[in-house]
Amino acid sequence: MSQNTSAAEGGAPQEEPAPYGTGSAPTPATAPAARRRVRTHTLQQMKERHEKWTMLTSYDQYSAQIFDEAGVQVLLVGDSAANNVYGYESSLPVSVDELLPLVRAVSRSAKYAFVLADLPFGSYQGSPEQAYDTAVRFMKDGHAHGVKLEGGAEMVPQIRRLVDGGVPVCAHIGFTPQSEHTLGGYRIQGRGDAAKKTIDDALAVQEAGAFAVVMEMVPGDVATEITSTLRIPTIGIGAGAGTDAQVLVWQDMMGLNAGRLPRFVKTYADLRTTMLDAARAYVADVEGGSFPGEEHTFQG
Asked: Taking the model in full, what pTM does it have?
């Protein structure tokens, strides 16, 4: 399957490309020479300088390489892989064993971005020790740089245990997809009298040691107030423009998802149409006999 032709096959010898991430691999032309790995203190300093930053989901080598080169600061290997990779209807069924290979792929491929791994449903809620054991797997076996878990004040014991054990933790409050059945479906959180609980949750995870907090489907004014109150960075998804950072699922913002998208998603490309057209053209070429052509065929 190699695209390189050897002298023995009748062509001029071509140098094999170096593996991505090795010292001999080519540096992308767009990458700044002084660019360094993003760390938790990098994100904290950006908040203090009032600089916005970005997070995208990533589940594989090529998306990780592309987003990393584009300058995305954090790559989230989310439990959203459940319904964007594995074909589940929600994030609930995905397991640690299913997510670990995806985390490894992204960690191997991203040279600069901070790689954040989601703790899936049922892998951390039971106790702080369960949370720590799961997080250790993602850090040791997946080579993640930190983990994300859902929940506010009720997750303080888990967050403290992870942080005390050397695991950077990003919290997730507001609408928490793993609790969709408890919350009554995909509903905005923090409206009216419920705003106080959302604010209290944000303060609780900060004091427990979280280095950042995702706020999902929270009214913009509430998210802005929380952002101005917290010392740690806030990451919005459906939480308005007042947060320190934004996160989206990459298949949504690239137009790969053909289903109904949430209001907070902006589509930046139409990859589904591009891929569909390319696949149809390939089918037509093969069925019509025009591929492979002479230029794609080795000679004896």
From this structure: 0.88
Residues 95-141 have pLDDT tens digits of: 999 999 999 999 999 999 999 999 999 999 999 999 999 999 999 99
The sign of the torsion formed by the CA atoms of 107, 113, 119, 121 equals: negative
The confidence band for 188, taking pLDDT boundaries of 50, 70 and 90, is confident
H-type alpha helices, 51-166: 61-70, 81-84, 96-109, 128-140, 156-164
Q: Do 136 and 144 meet the contact criterion of CB atoms below 8 Å apart?
A: no
* C-alpha–C-alpha distance, residues 115 and 128, integer Å: 22
DSSP 297: S
Assess whether 9 carries a catalytic annotation: no
All structural domains of the chain: 40-254 (3.20.20.60)
Give the residue numbers of the binding site for 3-methyl-2-oxobutanoate. Answer: 79-80, 118, 148
Q: Which of 98, 216, 225, 287 is labelled catalytic?
A: 216
